[in-house]
Amino acid sequence: MTTTLTPARSSGAARASRRAAAAVLRTETTLFRREPAGLFWIMVFPTVLLVVLGSIPGFRDPDKALGGIRFVDAYVPVAVLLSMIMAGLQAMPPVITGYRERGILRRMSVTPVRPSALLGAQMGLHGAAALLSAVLSLTVGRLVFDVALPRQLFGYALALLLAVLSALALGALVSALSRTSKVASAIGSAVFFPMMFSAGVWLPVQAMPDTLGRIVELLPFGAAAQALGEAAAGGWPGWDHLGVLALWTVLLSAAATRWFRWE
């Protein structure tokens, strides 16, 4: 009797878990849409910054320091990466840490909903928002400033995916190391500005001095900026840059898994 009931119970539990996970995703999506500030900084601000900088006449002229391309051409990948940095470091960690701080994850552990479902929903929503922001930046760059669309689409998509995964893994690590949402915001802000610099927000990676450029390319967003730029120009992203992104994703994910606590 026990042997025949066990598979049925396991199947029923699995279905209940899936339904609970779907409910969590719907709820988190609703809450995510109700945060206009977070949506603005992830999905709108990078494109607004692109428009502001692209409106400067000198930034629409070819620049020898950038290999003959315009500053606005070089800045589109930066705007794409900025949305990921915003999502991974500024938006996601305070939410996840706040859930842990208020005991929500602990209470979920005694229900059919697993805390991992909530974590997965948060990472999926922030990753999707960053990707939509990337599409918006590419579209505005093309329509407003005549920036060419990526010529190596598959390579660009691969670099984009690895960059998103790196950003989310970094955000998960910040969440793992933070006891409270205030600590998460502080750590996120401390990491935020170096990552912005490495992505080329203030100075495109292509225009950095050789030594500084080589150092920056060892960081996830520096490597991502180079990979996206190479794919945009029509070449396949350098395997060294893709390898740096993949390595950072694995290392950050492993560290986040090692130190993450539900309570």
TrEMBL record:
GO terms for cellular component: ATP-binding cassette (ABC) transporter complex. Pfam families: ABC2_membrane. This is Transport permease protein. Belongs to the ABC-2 integral membrane protein family. Residues 37-263 form the ABC transmembrane type-2 domain. It comes from Streptomyces hundungensis. The keyword Cell membrane applies. GO terms for biological process: response to antibiotic. Keywords: Antibiotic resistance, Cell membrane, Membrane, Transmembrane, Transmembrane helix, Transport. It is found in: Cell membrane; Membrane. The chain crosses the membrane at residues 39-59, 74-96, 117-141, 153-176, 183-203, 242-260. Its main location: membrane. It comes from the Bacteria. One of its GO terms (molecular function) is ABC-type transporter activity. The keyword Transmembrane helix applies. It is a multi-pass membrane protein.
